[in-house]
Amino acid sequence: MKLDIKPLVLCLSSLLALPALAAEPESCRNVRFADVGWTDIAATTGLATVVFKGLGYTPTKTIASEPIVFAGLKSKQLDVYLGYWDPSQTPAITPFVQSKSLKVLPSANLEGAKYTLAVPSYAADKGLRTFADIAKFRKELDGKIYGIEPGSQGNAQIKKMIDNNEFGLKGFKLIESSEAGMLVMATKAFSQKRPIVILAWEPHPMNFLMKLTYLSGGDKQFGPNYGGSKVYSVVANDYQQRCPNAGKLVDNLKFTLDMENHVMNPIMSKVDPELAAKQWLQRNPQALTAWLDGVTTFDGKPGLDAVKAALAQ
After folding, report:
1. Is 288:51 a contact under the CB 8 Å cutoff?
2. Which one, of 146, 157, 50, lies nearest residue 42 by Cα?
3. Of 20, 23, 148, 181, which residue is least crowded by CB atoms under 10 Å?
4. Cα distances (angstroms) measured from residue 34 to each of 46, 69, 73, 279
5. 263 Cβ neighbours under 8 A, 6+ residues apart
């Protein structure tokens, strides 16, 4: 029996004539970032946004509290969060991790961070150096400790210390507002040389705009080494399977304290985070090489060349 190969040839010819498929489905083009309103997360999200745009994606950002961010990742209404601080946010994220409702990427995107209570160095010079010293300065502090936005784990830890009378803090009041609100009060206290206790962290421009002393003795509450922390990226639990190219970029993103401090500084002066990030990348394009290793544009072309071209515009 003679095999008629004409139909096979025609079928193959038709397949070869099709246009190249995009690297990912259209649903992956919009990368939905979460941001809890901290300047360091604004900086890293800004950096990622610039790179994704250069690759032909259309990233968006939602600002929300920690619980809403984790719930949004669980429900797949959000895709990426670059700001899981370990250990401070670990109690909040653990139930989601245990139920496999989201995925924490295994390699930290930032190491060497810290997150605990701090005071102006002039207050430390007067003896306010440890958690145990706070109660001794109750009158000068007006019985207040300044936190950040409601729902943050840092605030929850301060409230727990007050409720349990740890370090003799019973009767103190936690002032919750936002990162910006806390910094306004800190700046005012610095200008008047008044003592103040704030929830502080690094990376952040506050560390070179104000001379701070981080309090010792809070290892149980915030972790050793002055709340020594690592920051991890978190994605919806199937994001890397649905959007492997975008997921690869998120996995590649690694930052440094110096990088974040320099991107955050103009943001603190009301420069748009995306613009601040773009300006930093224009001055430091070498960061792109590792980030874009194995990453293409949305339509499958070389990623590094595309992002460099976009930054040159």
Report:
1. yes
2. 50
3. 20
4. 11, 6, 9, 22
5. 43, 44, 46, 47, 273, 276, 277, 280
Going from the N-terminus, what domains does the chain have, and what CATH number goes with each?
26-112+230-312 (3.40.190.10), 115-228 (3.40.190.100)
CA 260, CA 203: separation in Å to the nearest integer?
6
Question: Can you give the pLDDT at residue 18?
Answer: 35
Rounded Cα distance between 15 and 23, Å, is 17
Task: Give me the helix-helix angle, 90-98 and 66-74, nearest 10°.
Answer: 10
Q: What is the mean pLDDT of residues 54-61?
A: 98
- Alpha-carbon distance of 163 to 151, in angstroms, equals 16
Q: How far apart are CA 49 and CA 45, in angstroms?
A: 6
pTM over 0.85: no
164-188: per-residue pLDDT in tens? 999 999 999 999 999 999 999 999 9
Give the model confidence (pLDDT) of 283-302 as tens digits.
Answer: 999 999 999 999 999 999 99
- Could you report the per-residue pLDDT of 14-47, keeping only the tens digit for each? 433 333 334 689 999 999 999 998 999 999 999 9
